[in-house]
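INTERNAL AUDIT FORM
Audit reference: QA-55
Scope: verify that the stored structure record matches its stored sequence.
Auditor: D.O.
Record contents follow.
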Amino acid sequence: MQLCPHCHTGKIEWRKVVYVQWKGPRTVIVDRIPAKVCDNCGEKTYDLHALENLQKLLWAVTAPPARHAPTPPAGKG
């Protein structure tokens, strides 16, 4: 059993929780992210591997398209 580093009285256990993140004007809500949660104060520490994978997915979906240099107009001739 691990004691909570935040309140120093609660017990830490793994649970699946809801993760909320704001990206600009948009809100991202993901259900069932693994996290260590205190049974006393509710402090959450999200699983680092799960968050890294989530960030990769979010950036892949929300990244702006690559900009290409404009093609010069064809010469008159």
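Auditor finding: record pair retrieved intact. DSSP finds one helix and four strands in the chain.
Action required: none
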